[in-house]
Please model this.
Amino acid sequence: MSILADGTQELHSYLFKVRDSISDNTTNLAAIKAALVELLVYLCSQEGRTADNCTTADTFFRLHADYGFNWIHLPEELQLILEDIGGQLHDTLEHPDTATNFESTPEQLLTRIHCLSF
Model:
């Protein structure tokens, strides 16, 4: 799959930082968590919280294999969060009840990341 066509350049940098931290053979959980926190803080911000950005991030994680990474080597609790980013995050602005029901708004995902023990 080619370079992302949608979302802001800033979003792209956060997405690729997460991808690179997950793809790193050392499996540095602290680095993965930090990259996810940066991404989600951006998606919670006034600048970052757009339907386009949420949909682009959702698609990036839903089609993660097309972007050259997977997370089967990560702890299950982290895998579930990554799957939820690629699940209902796109509904954050247009169908907020759906995103909330699946604990997939940027704020809910950020809270879940902060609760990880690593």
